[in-house]
């Protein structure tokens, strides 16, 4: 089994790249396949001996060719909202045709039942994967601490974190935490047919976020509460397209409703250590 091929889609992206680096700690480079759109961006992996194969989510034939001989596939969900389902279907179909043994998919918290604004595409993907006949593991990744880097930049200028989340909490973890979790599932036994709800160990609120950012930037930062329509107005006032602003406000409403607050402990159990704290995660991302 140690020589069976493990493939990672989006291998030059933030999460996929970290998964490859983690896998290199325990696996030979030759047993790893990096699926990428742009071969040039993967030169650093090729130099290490990782197999680099080019295929986009829109090219079924290239995907099938790239997945030939692969035993385990990490399907990192696409980043293009509205395009994810057809993209993921292409990968799952290609995996089935190519004879992949197991597909591990990065989903969203409680994707099949949640009202989370990003959940619908993950729900559709999960349902397609579980009906495909392929062996699968689903990683329902919670929020990334790195999502809050824009708030750090804004707070440097304004001394405030502005949000429409009320008293909502977020159990975030760092991308490296989630990458370590994915790597553990890719190389470990006993994960077949399992759905993991992954999150940070601690659900923080926005007063804590503001205080933490204040510690990092060395000046007081306050959490400024606004309602959804006010947030949309503020964001569009900065030049953000209204559709994007409404999406951001919907996410804040989801947080206010507690949809990202679940600190399940499943991620720390997978990786064998506590998840990275909010402060340490932000500091690492800024570095």
Shape-level CATH architecture of the largest domain: 3-Layer(aba) Sandwich
Largest sheet: 7 strands, parallel
CATH topology of the largest domain: Rossmann fold
Instruction: Report low-confidence residues grouped into runs of 5 or more.
Output: none
Features:
single chain, 287 residues, alpha/beta, Rossmann fold, UDP-galactose 4-epimerase, domain 1, 2 domains, seven-stranded parallel β-sheet, two-stranded parallel ribbon, 12 helices, 11 strands
Your description of this structure?
The chain folds into two domains: 5-141, Rossmann fold; 143-173 and 200-261 and 276-287, UDP-galactose 4-epimerase, domain 1 (Alpha-Beta Complex). With 287 residues, it is an alpha/beta fold. The longest helix has 15 residues, at 84-98. Helix 4 packs parallel to helix 5. The chain starts with a strand and ends with a helix. 44% of the residues lie in helices and 17% in strands.
Produce the secondary structure layout.
Layout (H helix, E strand, L loop, with lengths): L4 E5 L4 H10 L8 E5 L6 H6 L2 E4 L5 H7 L3 E6 L8 H15 L3 E6 L11 H12 L4 E7 L7 H10 L1 E4 L5 E2 L4 H13 L6 E5 L5 E2 H12 L4 E4 L2 H10 L4 H15 L9 H6 L6 H9 L1
Parallel strand pairs: 1-2, 1-4, 2-3, 4-5, 5-6, 6-9, 7-11
Antiparallel strand pairs: 8-10
Helix pairs in contact: 1-7, 3-4, 4-5, 6-8, 8-12, 9-10
Nutshell version of this structure?
With 287 residues, the protein is α/β, with parallel strands linked by helices. The chain has twelve helices and eleven strands. The protein folds into two domains: 5-141, 3-Layer(aba) Sandwich (Rossmann fold), CATH 3.40.50.720; 143-173 and 200-261 and 276-287, UDP-galactose 4-epimerase, domain 1 (Alpha-Beta Complex), CATH 3.90.25.
